[in-house]
């Protein structure tokens, strides 16, 4: 739009305007000429305008002379808009005072500036505060000395959604998360997205850890409800770390770091929960992160290896399968058993990657040991993160196809705890596995909280009796009774039973008398490398299992 021109006399009445002025202010020349300049000045500014004009007409130097300033003006009808105005004054030959101005409508510039400000302070995807703005607000709030809590939230299962459904669906989930958080927290001073699938909020007026825990628990509970997007029902859980102010940090960086340690711990113990920070978490988290960094290198460098423990038909004393168990050939610490690294691995996203590798290696072993037949079954333990992955059945099928393996040569083992997190989702996952033809074993049954009805609901093929019931099975009546009941129930339901931790011939004989079909334990062999396991199977075929010396680590 062209520059608007206006000229007023000493009394403040408009004596000239150009067409651009009329267009900008929505007046005709007939309507505006002879009218006071205050007609285009907002009421709150009129007093200052009148005083300034009076001073200048009396001979004072105009304060706005020679420079452009940004102020507000009024259009016809009262709409206010921003302008940039440059004022000049003069006297004509008759000594009459005049004031003139050039005016530019800067509405578009202001809108552009506002957009830039929003971009500088808002997360462009969710509309929440971005990291910079959130930290700035958090710092300002901390300066007030008020008590409160910082909640740092990470989404459980989001990576799998991105991997399976693509980033467009993933972005839609993040937007929906932002909406749900805003609804839950209302007029919170600060709600932000720090990046990726990490969100944060300031819980003002939180008196203590108990109250902070309760508020965070309500957020976790709200995220148990799935998101409905594009015909998809997407389950995204929330893990939250909580840090209290000022106890856990007097500046934003320290408070966020404390909440991050608590968040890491929450995810490490299973996710989908909230935990309040305590100092020990700082050391635990750093040690866990160091371990995960080493494990990433181990996977890349081929340091991980599957060992295989024989599973034996208790009646015929022959090997019928193997359980695959992961080992780490550490370059400086030697062979590491799972207890050294699984606690750090199990709840990390790396667990899924290593889990896919494990399934592929187990299928490779099954293809080798079975040759053209299909006698030996390889059992693989699933990580929790794997079990929650929506593409689990697809990955299993891909591994079977890659090694030209029949589905009944593979069995996937799940624990009670894995299935307890989401009963309906667990059912769908297990059904998808069984539809392929792959077996499903319930591992360590009796050590957790699964009800007996879960054996009926879930499409299982095998029940594994925990070693804790086997150790004293001949001397402790309760262990005997429980094992007998599990074997009988499994037989009636068409499930195979595998007893773990058999160490003596008398234990094996007792289990045979109860009707238990299969067993594994040091009596039949410790976990062994693949080539030794293949040799073990070959010796079993010639009925030399009992004399085989496969007592390797």
From TrEMBL:
Any single Pfam family the record assigns to this protein: GGDEF
Chain ranges of the PAC domain: 67-118
Every PAS domain range: 1-43
SUPFAM superfamilies documented for this protein: EAL domain-like, Nucleotide cyclase, PYP-like sensor domain (PAS domain)
Annotated GGDEF domain residues: 146-279
Every EAL domain range: 288-541
SMART domains assigned to the protein according to its UniProt record, in alphabetical order: EAL, GGDEF
NCBIfam families in the cross-refs: GGDEF, sensory_box
Protein name: EAL domain-containing protein
Organism per entry: Peteryoungia ipomoeae
